[in-house]
Amino acid sequence: MMTNNRKLLDWVKNVAALCKPDAIHWCDGSQEENDRLCAQAEAAGTFIRLNPAKRPNSFLVFSDPADVARVEDRTFVATTDPREAGPNNNWRDPVELKATMRKLYDGCMRGRTMYVIPFSMGPIGSPIAHIGVELTDSIYVVVNMRIMTRIGDAVLEALGDNGEFVECLHSVGAPLAPGQKDVPWPCNAENKYISHFPEDPSIWSYGSGYGGNALLGKKCFALRIASTMARRQGWMAEHMLILGLTNPAGQKIYVAAAFPSACGKTNLAMLQPTLPGWKAECVGDDICWMKFDQNGQLRAINPEAGFFGVAPGTSMKSNPNAMRSLRANCIYTNCALTADNDVWWEELTDEPPAELTSWKREKWTPGCGQKAANPNARYTAPARQCPVIDPAWEDPAGVPIAAILFGGRRPGTVPLCFEAPNWQYGTFLGSIQASETTAAAAGSVGVLRYDPMAMLPFCGYNMGDYFAHWLSMPGRAPNAQMPRVFFVNWFRKSADGRWLWPGFGENSRVLKWIFERIEGTAAAAETPIGLLPAPGAIDVAGLDVAAEDMRELLSVDAAAWLKDLPAIRAHYDKFGDAIPAALHKELDDFEARLQAAAKQADPR
Ligand code: OXD
Ligand code: MN
């Protein structure tokens, strides 16, 4: 199908004139096209076809060792006024940055094909979805985008002659001279740019072929650019998983949850409840777009169509539903290769295979002192293959969000769970969200890293204005019903360094309390930090956690919280006067309540 969309046609023509590809291919998104591109990448030595008896229609790719992860120091937000980008972003002047990048793009696709990928973030035609078009010279990007988003003719049709789309330009930055042989993973490691121009809006990515640097629908569009659109248009683009929770009576709620990296977001998204009769289903594991419907209900879609998950650590023990999603039709990046052409990564099995090909294409044996898979090795899996995918995951209307959860890795201070009594205080809690690095050496103190709403690397504008946007949400729709806000911490440790809470499927006990808070049946006690589960309100039937540990998990240590106060204030100070006055007031009140409680506990 061709398009008559003038803006799209002109843009493709202009980019082609700049990048000078040998050919242009408009992706239709079909299986046939996908199979042809995969075969081509296989012939080029980029893709390794995995054992069809074990992993049908699946491929392994080894990247260049200089191109294995998102590059935050090469990620830019270009706005006319630097204050717009804020201290949380690397600011550049848009005119200067475009001039620099145009020089790099000039002729950068020589010897390659430029692929045009129309894609929809969200179910095609959903009022919450948005369209983008990515131009790329990487087959790896095309086949990954086909899993991670909806691509092809159906999107062009939805775009129509006059539809708006976000321009996403990507090149690996490795032109080929006539007759020059390609490498398996072309990139330009010395010249990476992941640039965002929210005023266009557009994304210009150069030099990297990996993950969020190259699959521009994900972090670049669905978070950085979308957050600026959401602010303007009165909705929310968040770094959150979405899950459906059904109680034994068959009643269902949906919750969204924001956690910094390495806090088990994908595990929670695909949780298997241990509580009898409870069911959890996955809508998404990474990104959540929320808009009010005409009744003032906040409804969410997962803008993605796949999971781009970290492979190491994923196993039948830690996340059986993720493992089952990987049975076929997946792309693996920087995992290790087994002798019988399957993939392996650290912790997949208790015993590693006797011999592997590592992600560096080297022979690997257990005990050789190297990791077989890169620590950021990934699987790209279609979401529809997840055995607990929610029946409404592609509902264009989205799912109603009843609760938002924040959390982090906090060995101390933060209780297992508590609730914010209102939206403003909930926003405050999100703004001081932090994750603690575990003490590397005995006696060393954990370092708190503030990552508000888990959006620090992904908010496309000034974080202080982002907090103001959160505070403005209740006023953005008549009869706005805001979700309840909760804070959770699965990672609390005892004084002697034991995990106090078993986590994983047992987290369903905390979800049950949250469900019952929303239903109005669970008891909570007021404390200086918010509403804590009343004694006995968390269902511990059949759980092997000592009563004493439960008490510790659900205690508020005012003195410990007060110790964080200087760091919280320093965190706020980074954003200067962009921090809304309402949050400063919440912080002052928070401190006063804690001081009163600390005094009561220790009146000296
Ligand atoms: C991700 C991330 O890859 O948050 O999802 O870094
Ligand atoms: Mn993420």
Domains, number: 3
Helix content: 25-40%
- Overall outline: globular
Question: How far apart are the termini?
Answer: 78 Å
Please give the largest β-sheet: 9 strands, mixed
Please write the CATH class name of the largest domain. Answer: Alpha Beta
Number of helical segments? Answer: 16
Name the quaternary structure.
single chain
Bound small molecules, by name, code or SMILES, are: oxalic acid, manganese (II) ion
What does this structure look like?
The chain is an alpha+beta fold and 604 residues long. The chain folds into 3 domains: 204 residues, Phosphoenolpyruvate Carboxykinase, domain 1 (3-Layer(aba) Sandwich), CATH 3.40.449; 278 residues, Phosphoenolpyruvate Carboxykinase, domain 3 (Alpha-Beta Complex), CATH 3.90.228; 79 residues, Phosphoenolpyruvate Carboxykinase, domain 2 (Beta Complex), CATH 2.170.8. It is 28% helix and 22% strand. It contains 16 helices and 31 strands. Strands 1, 4, 5, 6, 7, 8, 9, 10 and 11 form a 9-stranded mixed β-sheet that branches. Strands 12, 13, 14, 15, 16, 17, 25, 26 and 29 form a 9-stranded mixed β-sheet that branches. Helix 11 crosses helix 16 and helix 15 packs antiparallel against helix 16. The longest helix is centred in the last third of the chain and has 21 residues. The site of oxalic acid (OXD) has 3 residues, from loops.
